[in-house]
Structures are given as C-alpha cells and as structure tokens.
Amino acid sequence: MSSNYKIGGILISEREICERVRSLAERIASDTAPGGDLLVVGILNGAAIFLSDLARHMPPELDVRIDFMAISSYGDSTQSSGAVRIVKDLGGGIEGKDVLIVEDIIDTGLTLSYLIDIMLTRKPARLRTCVLLDKHERRERPVEVDYCGFQIPDAFVAGYGLDCGGKWRHLPAIHVVELG
Ligand code: 5GP
Q: What is the pTM of this model?
C-alpha cells in the first residue's frame, strides 16, 4: 500500500525532536527515585529509535534497564483495526519494578490502554507511560499519558521510527504522509 503514498513535508524537525527528547528524559529522571531502578519498555517497531535516544539522555545515576514488546494493531494499513495482540513479550517479569512504557504515538488509545491493562496485571511497583506523539482529537479510549513529546493534528505521519507500509522509519524528522 505504501506505493500509493509519498513522504510529505516535515511536521517536526530533527532539532525539535532532539531538544524535546532530552527534556523528556530529564523530567523522567527527576521523577524517578535517585539511584533507583527504571525498566524502560519500548514498543516495537515504532518506538525503537525514540527509546534509544531517550535512554541515552538518562543520567548514569539511574539504573536503567531496557526491554521491548511488540504489539500488532495496525498491520500495513493506515486505519486502526482496534485489534491488538502481543507479538513479542518481555524477556522477564516486572513485578515490583518501576516501569516506563515508551510508545511512538497514541491515536485512538486502544493500543496503550490494552498494554497498560496487561502490565498492571503483572503488578509493577509503578507504571508510567511516555509517548512521542499524541493525536489527541482521535482518542476513543481515555488513557493516562505521563510524558508526551508533541501533540499533533489528525494526519498520518512517518519518520523517526514511525513507518508507512514498513518504509521511512529511518528518516530523522517526522513527516506527513501524502497520497501519491
Ligand atoms: P492507537 O491504538 O492509539 O489507535 O494506535 C497506536 C498505534 O497506531 C501506534 O503504535 C502506531 O503503530 C499506529 N499509528 C497511529 N497513528 C499513526 C501515524 O500517524 N503514523 C504511523 N506510522 N503509525 C500510526
């Protein structure tokens, strides 16, 4: 399907992302107990690049661990199916841990609310959420987001980890996707 689409103009520049990611990491670190442990859980594939930048801005005093989960909700389409399933689970348990879910984008909220429900059944000591992008006007399910990079309008976007039919994740900025 991506052949019907082309990469459009820049919505959020590389520089803006870089500055925002740094300040998010500082806020997360200052909200975490000094010397504490933090398990950062990235949601593949979209959050991989965001997480790797975010984690590298966290101070050495924090004991940061990184793990990944993969959840399928969109397939190759630009329409939300509402169906979500775990494709890859965490490497270990999270009971009693301070957990931060890192997601690329929240749209309807179905994916993140499903993930939060699953994580809470595993009894973390604390669960926080961090999303790079928020399409707030599209929300169908209320979700508590603790850290948000940018509120964006209702447009399909790609770049900085986000894809369109598997393409354009490698782009350093966030672009709008246009019909070709
Ligand atoms: P939600 O369940 O909140 O509707 O959707 C969350 C997921 O939808 C994200 O993790 C992402 O995979 C996908 N998604 C929603 N909007 C966009 C978008 O504009 N671009 C891309 N690449 N993915 C999106």
A: 0.94
Strands lying side by side in the sheet with 147-151: 85-88, 63-72, 37-44, 98-106, 126-134, 147-151
Instruction: Collect all residues with Cβ–Cβ distance below 8 Å to 170 and sequence separation of at least 6.
Output: none
For 49-65, write each residue's pLDDT tens digit: 999 999 999 999 999 99
Q: Identify the active-site residue in 31, 67, 98, 107.
A: 107
In sign, the C-alpha dihedral spanning 121, 127, 129, 130 is negative
Residue tagged 């059944």 (tokens): 121
CA of 34 relative to ligand 1 center, distance in Å: 33
User: CA 130 to CA 43: how far, in whole Å?
Assistant: 11
Per DSSP, the three-state class of 48 is helix
State the pLDDT confidence band at 116, using cuts at 50, 70 and 90: very high
Whole-number Å distance, alpha carbon 21 to ligand 1 midpoint, is 19
